[in-house]
Automatic annotation (TrEMBL):
<dbReference type="Pfam" id="PF13460">
    <property type="entry name" value="NAD_binding_10"/>
</dbReference>
<protein>
    <submittedName>
        <fullName>Nucleoside-diphosphate sugar epimerase</fullName>
    </submittedName>
</protein>
<feature type="domain" description="NAD(P)-binding">
    <location>
        <begin position="8"/>
        <end position="170"/>
    </location>
</feature>
<dbReference type="InterPro" id="IPR036291">
    <property type="entry name" value="NAD(P)-bd_dom_sf"/>
</dbReference>
<dbReference type="InterPro" id="IPR016040">
    <property type="entry name" value="NAD(P)-bd_dom"/>
</dbReference>
<dbReference type="InterPro" id="IPR051604">
    <property type="entry name" value="Ergot_Alk_Oxidoreductase"/>
</dbReference>
Length: 266
């Protein structure tokens, strides 16, 4: 039986990865700031050695757009080397090397740390999760007019499908950088916003607003998209039907983590 530790194991993605791995018969340790018995703050690393003792594979889902990912990864990798962990699996984001966003740069830096760690490693990049897109649009829809960035599209993917892929990769040997995983459709942000409004029974005009800056140019160029890797099955409308109550104007059970994956432990 393989012993697998999942960082951020109580978060949007991590909890689903934990469930899949346990269903497959693996012994799984859940690491986050508050999950006993492996309550660890990766930013200081206290308790990591005990958490990693006897672990074969680490699935690193913990991340925060507020910062600290690089430091957390250094602590995790150092402890994994001390514990002779055989496989480090990291979930990253499509476009971290093409869109000049601070959080993306941090994710790319963690990819490099994994590659240079001396451990067996695998990196999977995925596009944004449906729940992040819904959270963004829900915030925009609080105004009488929904303002969306002009010329920007997205390709959201079902988080449960990404969890399934991670569980598959965790049970396999290290594979390096594996093919990206993206949702089934490239959709304009205008279209996604209108889909959300229909699902919530709201009536709002949607106005496209041009922005400025390198990050906006990277998004307009589609640096965060992977149309050639549209392997996801679940659509945004299916996500909305499952999680958004018509007329309530808010997401039901989707959470707010999206593909920022603020899953704790970092």
């Amino acid at each position: 039986m393989t012993t697998i530790l999942v960082t951020g194991g109580t978060g949007t993605l991590g909890r689903l990865v934990v469930a899949r791995l346990r269903a497959d018969g693996h012994e799984v340790r859940v690491l986050s700031r508050h999950a006993q018995p492996y309550a660890v703050n990766l930013l200081d690393g206290a308790g990591l050695d005990a958490a990693l003792a006897g672990v074969d594979t680490v699935v690193h889902c913990a991340s925060s757009p507020r910062g600290g990912d690089e430091r957390a990864a250094r602590n995790l990798i150092a402890a994994a080397r001390r514990a002779d962990v055989a496989h480090l699996l990291y979930i990253s984001i499509v476009g971290v090397d093409r869109v000049p966003l601070g959080y993306y740069r941090a994710k790319l830096a963690v990819e490099r740390q994994a590659e240079q760690s001396g451990l067996g490693w695998t990196v999977l990049r995925a596009t944004q999760f449906h729940d992040l897109v819904a959270t963004l649009v829900r915030g925009l829809a609080r105004l009488p007019v929904v303002l969306v960035p002009a010329g920007v599209s997205d390709q959201p993917v079902e988080v449960a499908e990404v969890a399934d892929r991670l569980a598959e990769l965790a049970a396999a040997p290290p594979a390096g950088r594996v093919p990206d995983m993206a949702g089934p459709e490239v959709r304009t942000f205008t279209d996604l916003a209108r889909a959300y409004l229909r699902a919530t029974g709201r009536r709002r005009p949607v106005l496209r607003v041009p922005l400025a800056g390198r990050t906006y140019r990277g998004l307009r160029a589609g640096g965060h998209l992977a149309p050639d890797r549209a392997v996801g099955k679940g659509t945004f409308e299916e996500y909305l039907a499952r999680t958004v109550g018509v007329g309530r104007g808010r997401a039901g059970t989707g959470g707010t983590g999206g593909h920022t994956k603020a899953d704790g432990g970092a």
